[in-house]
Amino acid sequence: MRFVQATRRGRLLAAGLVVGLVVAACAPADDEEGAVGEPIDDEDTVDEPGDPAPGGSLTVGLEAETAGWAPWSDSWSPPGWMVARSFYDTLMDRDEDGVPQPNLAESFEPNDEFTEYTLTLREGIEFHDGEPLDADAVVANLEKHREPGAVTGAAVAPIEDVIAEDELIVRFVLDQPHVAFTDYYVGQAGAMVSPASIEAETASTEPVGTGPFVFENWQRDQQLEVSRNEDYWREDLPYLDEVTFRPIPDEDARLQSLFSGDVDVMHTLRQSIVTQAQEREDEFNLYEAIGNNSGATILNTAVPPFDDQRVREAWAYSINQDELIAVLGGTGISPPSRGVFNPNSPWFNEEMDELWPSEDLDRAQEALDSYVEDPDRSDGEEPGTPVSFEFDTPPDPSLLETSSVYQANVGRIGMEMDIQTVEQAVHIQQAVGEPPEFVGDYQAKIFRVGEEADPDWMIPSFAEGSPVNFTNYNNPEMFGLLIEARQTPGFEDRRDIYHQVQQILAEDIPFTLTGHTFSLIATDSDVYGFDSWELPDGTRGVGHPESIARWHSVWSDQ
């Protein structure tokens, strides 16, 4: 049975509809016509049978292990979020239109100038260790995110002060107007950790949150177990008694584990696996979605040879995007990426179809030859020496095959690419690099680029010295535009600014893209609840973009 995510244009708006930032009333304003569009897929979401049944346990196959669970120091890709949302709740979460709405927060309201925000917490919420979620706890969490070297540091950089004004009220004072500020509290900066866990410095290995499940134990690279939070702040939730998460990096092995019954749930962002699962849709429940996330290669612009734009241009214009989509099984499923916004996103601009780099071997060769013959080339090699570099990929067979296509593509113009396999947790850490520079220990990596969030996510992603500026790309003109967009209330005005940003990215090429990712959660036929969850006020939630679950709503009719 297929449950198709009804992905509306508005779902990708996030905080961009500034009127919608202000907590409770988040519908687009009347003058924002066209912001919400049609579903990508015409098929409606399938109704789930009956009422949710309490009890039961599930085993979940993940695409990778995660380095740790401290939201200020450990970066979470989709498999990390898949686990973290079992024991952590966030201050905000997204409704079905993608707009941030209160979750642990009761409200999160800006002043008229968007220079201060007042957070009011819900009463009676406790961490798993019995400590209250109060204003002091929020301040303690934010202090960790504001420490030097925090992976979330750039996201909270505009904060001048965080003040506990009452038991449940926190005031954020910013150094600039920030119309998308609440959007960050859907993410890692909004994942609330027990103050005792913060003080003991155990959050990375023994997470204590307010989530629907309580952390029990973790055998790294084998499994992580959580059990039902009997004192969960949302009445009659969660439904399940236990969830066990097992990293199974091999995509085919993970799918076969579902087919054989070794796991009850698996997720994937690999189109070839989606296709295989769809062939057995009568036997399993398939929760499908597509969004802004794209397969990508990130280029380390801080080190040779990709510190030179000519080499990045040679790379970009030698790539055949259709071949890369095909090898991942995405033909007919994943649309080619022309920038960081999906064509169904309100932020997308049709001009990017022409502006984003596409295969042009003559242009690629000309750019490469200019670099190769340059006596001052950045890699220090003699003129005429072929350009060589290492290309990192996790050991998944489909990614290795994709890397081989990249290798063949760039080989046509004489670039020599050495494929290196790296386990995913290390792969991400290499991209982050070490403090204080965070330049990353790599030259080129297969990666993902794009967010189901307000485009303000690009500020931490391109801020100088930011741990999540994986490409180490710094362009003052572009960064100035990003700051301008952050301070601009109107959607159309912000959209025009982000189009200028995309034009600069298309010219400077700190990364290249393949196709927008078609994501899937596949489950046994009696597992439900991934696309029908609600926020505390009864508003329907965003569903499961990037194959990430909200575990409080999942149930099994076993």
Describe this structure in words.
The protein is α/β, with parallel strands linked by helices. The chain has a domain of 226 residues: Roll (Dipeptide-binding Protein, domain 3), CATH 3.10.105.10. 24% of the residues lie in helices and 21% in strands. It contains 14 helices and 19 strands. Strands 1, 2, 9, 10, 11, 12, 13, 14, 15, 16 and 17 form an eleven-stranded mixed beta sheet that branches. A four-stranded antiparallel beta sheet has the order 5-6-8-7, with helices on one face. A hairpin with a 5-residue loop joins strand 3 and strand 4. Helix 6 runs antiparallel to helix 9 and helix 13 runs antiparallel to helix 14. The longest helix is centred in the C-terminal third of the chain and has 18 residues. The protein is globular and about 70 Å long. The chain starts with a strand and ends with a strand.
What is this entry, summarized?
By secondary structure, the chain is α/β, with parallel strands linked by helices. It has helices at 78-87, 135-145, 195-200, 251-260, 271-278, 309-317, 321-327, 352-355, 361-372, 397-411, 424-432, 458-462, 476-486, 491-508, and strands at residues 2-4, 57-62, 92-94, 100-102, 105-110, 116-121, 159-166, 169-174, 213-219, 223-228, 242-247, 265-268, 284-299, 388-393, 416-421, 444-449, 511-524, 527-528, 555-556.
